[in-house]
């Protein structure tokens, strides 16, 4: 009987052999259910072979093969294999991490959801917007969409049940057109959304945008990495749209990766408007299991043309993939920080190479790694140096020296004055502070006690509105104490500034202003973002107070003042990437101002106005800062001049951790090409009740580092580690 080698979700880096009747090479990639100890596990067939080293009496037979979903394509299996090798993570766990939940189980998948249920018993008709679609605007090859449009154009309305016998593609189109507002049902609340695409509302490209599109398209048939380095407001999205259009004309699929789930609805709307007849799916952690599975299957069958998603979407099967776009490529959320610590950006480059297609990395502030690859010629760099919207000027950026202008409750007089002026001119303002909650901690002024988390080495953040203290690392919550647990003092003071407190202070200064707080607490509710953005656009908000959640990609047309509080914390951080990250964040938030005809102003409160980072920021000179930082990194021997990996370990006591790391360090001593650091406790020692430490290793050669890690991991697996959990993190983005 043939033998199948199966990848299972267990922490062992090998495949498991089973008998499987009638199995052949065609079955590679199929999902199976197999006995494993006393359990039943789901797995993926990776190989079909004739012989095995497992003794016949120990070899079991698979229990079932699932043919309700097609086998995973070879290209995706190769991506998983690479990911497993490069990040030194067991292959079965890599695969299961990438699959939708429904495909990780030993149950068959549920049949496809039929959208038509929602409009089966109602009349469907073209909206005003739908009536304006010209047949000529739909490419001839999209025959089904053209026929459907004609069908609607010929009559006043069509009963939903008339589509009962039609293909799922037609039902899908109807669903999309409903979402896009092209057609309406009797029960649609409002139908005539004015979002029709006509040639006149597709913007004319700037010279730079045009050049970018042509450069990329001229080499579209083979692998190359382009770094699209465009200042905020330079119209990177329009470049993406033109490239996507070119791919769709050739019936190719496009994968677009974005860092934030909050950004997907906005981009989704832009894409829907531009490509109304295209099947777009979005894949992110906010979807339920069924939604994600449906999207995944549509991508795999080639029905979906555009896949828009966060880092996990890199593992989507795409048989006709023609282009990958990684927007905001510098963003650290492309790197997963637990379990399989992969970088979706780096995997995007691998995947493009594997299928020989172009990949675009877009950013206003590229990561130093990508920037370095661009200036050394490994990547092609394409610059967008001017704003795409006519009359939109870059904002002016100034610092407010808080050694001279003392702050009260976090706000200085010059900033308050600027806010007052802006309010009187009926312009919108943003106050940016990277700390949600009311205040970073609770302090006893008589004995200097501060509220700390019982499970982490972190201070608890005061959330006055809910009258509790919260740990922003582990989620621990407790009631606000009435008196100091150390000395009994009843006068406990919230210390420092958070979004809630700044909002409260602004309310006392500007009682008539409409002030809104935006952070993870206020946007937790589903659709909260949508209604907030609506309010901003309707000019129902005067001042927004928010965390970095505000910085990302949203256009606020009437925004002309941005105040930045407490950014100094990151200037002298022990993390060598902190300045790079702060600069990116401040550039991004500054870029929100002055998008339309208003000239924007950015005011940064700081005690260090002469710091090179603020100097570069005021000149909006990314290149100057990047070149400086690269020199620093070269001298210090940090990435991108070396390649790093971190062995992370945790246990109940730090001594156990350091012992283990010291053993690991001894094992690594024999490798000449590897530079080894000392084992150290993590900067935040305790997290969720565990104490943590790490050991950093690096090498000038990526290849040597990989060879070393492979050997080292084997050695580490033989070290007794009952009380320890450890993991390798390749190309770490934080320590
Ligand atoms: Zn006290
Ligand atoms: Zn905690």
Keywords:
six-stranded parallel β-sheet, seven-stranded parallel β-sheet, alpha/beta, 19 helices, globular, binds zinc ion, 33 strands, 735 residues
Characterise the protein shown here.
It contains 19 helices and 33 strands. Strands 11-12-10-13-14-9-15 form a 7-stranded parallel beta sheet, sandwiched between helices. A hairpin with a 7-residue loop joins strand 1 and strand 2. The two termini are 50 Å apart.
Largest sheet: 7 strands, parallel
Q: Are there runs of 5+ residues with pLDDT below 50, and where?
A: 189-198
The quaternary structure here is single chain
Based on secondary structure, the structural category is alpha/beta
Estimate the global geometry from the Cα principal axes: globular
The mean pLDDT is 88
Helix content, binned percent: 25-40%
Give the percentage of residues in beta strands: 15-25%
For the record, give the distance between the C-alpha atoms at the N and C termini, rounded to a whole number.
50 Å
The total of helices stands at 19
Provide the list of bound ligands, each named once: zinc ion
Radius of gyration: 28 Å
């Amino acid at each position: 009987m043939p033998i199948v080698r199966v990848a299972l979700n267990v922490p062992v880096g090998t495949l498991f052999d089973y008998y499987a009747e009638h199995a052949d090479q065609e079955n590679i990639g199929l999902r199976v259910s197999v006995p494993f100890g006393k359990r039943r596990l789901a797995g993926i067939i990776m190989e079909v072979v004739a012989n095995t080293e497992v003794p016949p009496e120990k070899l079991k037979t698979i229990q079932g093969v699932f043919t309700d979903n097609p086998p995973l394509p070879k290209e995706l299996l190769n991506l998983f294999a690479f990911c497993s090798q490069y990040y030194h993570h067991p292959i079965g766990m890599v695969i299961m991490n990438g699959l939708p939940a429904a495909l990780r189980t030993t149950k068959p998948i549920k049949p496809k959801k039929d959208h038509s249920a929602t409009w089966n018993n109602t009349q469907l008709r073209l909206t005003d917007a739908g009536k304006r679609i010209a047949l000529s605007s739909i490419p001839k090859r999209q025959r089904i969409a053209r026929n459907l449009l004609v069908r609607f154009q010929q009559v006043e309305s069509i009963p939903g049940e008339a589509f009962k016998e039609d293909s799922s593609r037609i039902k899908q189109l109807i669903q999309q057109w409903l979402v896009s507002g092209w057609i309406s049902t009797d029960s649609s609340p409002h139908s005539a959304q004015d979002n029709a695409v006509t040639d006149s509302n597709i913007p004319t490209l700037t010279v730079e945008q045009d050049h970018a599109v042509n450069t990329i398209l001229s080499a579209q048939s083979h692998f190359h990495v382009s770094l699209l380095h465009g200042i905020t407001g330079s119209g990177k999205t329009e470049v993406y749209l033109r490239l996507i259009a070119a791919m769709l004309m050739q019936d190719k699929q496009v994968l677009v990766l974005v860092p934030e789930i909050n950004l997907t609805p906005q981009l989704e709307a832009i894409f829907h408007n531009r490509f109304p007849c295209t099947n777009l799916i979005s894949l992110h952690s906010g979807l339920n299991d069924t939604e994600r599975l449906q999207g995944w299957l549509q991508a795999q069958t080639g029905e979906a043309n555009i896949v828009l998603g966060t880092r996990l979407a890199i593992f989507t099967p795409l048989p006709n993939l023609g282009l990958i776009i990684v927007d905001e490529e510098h963003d650290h959320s492309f790197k997963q920080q637990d379990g399989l610590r992969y970088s979706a950006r780096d995997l995007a480059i691998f995947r493009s190479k594997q299928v020989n297609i172009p990949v675009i990395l877009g950013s206003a502030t590229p990561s130093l790694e990508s920037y370095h690859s661009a200036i050394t010629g490994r990547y092609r760099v394409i610059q967008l140096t001017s704003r795409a919207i006519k009359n939109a000027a870059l904002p002016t950026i100034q610092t407010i020296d808080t050694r001279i202008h003392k702050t009260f409750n976090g706000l200085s007089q010059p900033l308050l004055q600027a806010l007052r002026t802006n309010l009187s001119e009926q312009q919108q303002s943003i106050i940016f502070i990277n700390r949600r909650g009311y205040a970073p901690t609770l302090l006893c002024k008589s004995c200097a006690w501060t509220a700390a988390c019982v499970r982490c080495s972190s201070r608890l953040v005061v959330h006055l509105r809910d009258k509790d203290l919260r740990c922003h690392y582990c989620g621990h919550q407790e009631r606000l104490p009435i008196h100091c647990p150390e000395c009994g003092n009843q006068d406990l003071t919230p210390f420092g500034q958070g979004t809630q407190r700044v909002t409260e202070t602004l309310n006392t200064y500007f009682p008539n202003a409409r002030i809104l707080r935006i952070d993870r607490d206020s946007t937790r509710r589903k659709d909260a973002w949508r209604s907030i953005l609506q309010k901003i656009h309707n000019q129902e908000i005067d001042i927004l107070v928010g965390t970095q959640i505000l910085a990302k990609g949203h256009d606020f047309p009437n925004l002309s003042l941005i105040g930045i509080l407490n950014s100094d914390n990151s200037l002298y951080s022990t993390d060598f990437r902190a300045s790079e990250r702060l600069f990116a964040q401040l550039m991004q938030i500054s870029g929100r101002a002055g998008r339309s005809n208003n000239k924007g102003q950015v005011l940064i409160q700081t005690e260090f106005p002469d710091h090179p980072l603020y100097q570069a920021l005021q000149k909006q000179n990314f290149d100057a800062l990047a070149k400086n930082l690269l020199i620093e990194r070269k001298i210090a021997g940090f990435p991108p001049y070396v390649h790093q990996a971190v062995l992370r370990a945790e246990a109940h006591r730090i001594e156990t951790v350091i012992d283990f790391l010291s053993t690991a360090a001894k094992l690594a001593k024999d490798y000449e090409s590897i530079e080894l650091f000392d084992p150290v406790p993590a900067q935040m020692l305790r997290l969720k009740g565990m104490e943590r430490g790490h050991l950093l290793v690096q090498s000038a050669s990526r290849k040597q580092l990989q060879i070393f890690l492979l050997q080292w991991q084997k050695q580490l697996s033989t070290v007794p580690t009952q009380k320890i959990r450890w993991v390798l993190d390749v190309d770490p983005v934080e320590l």
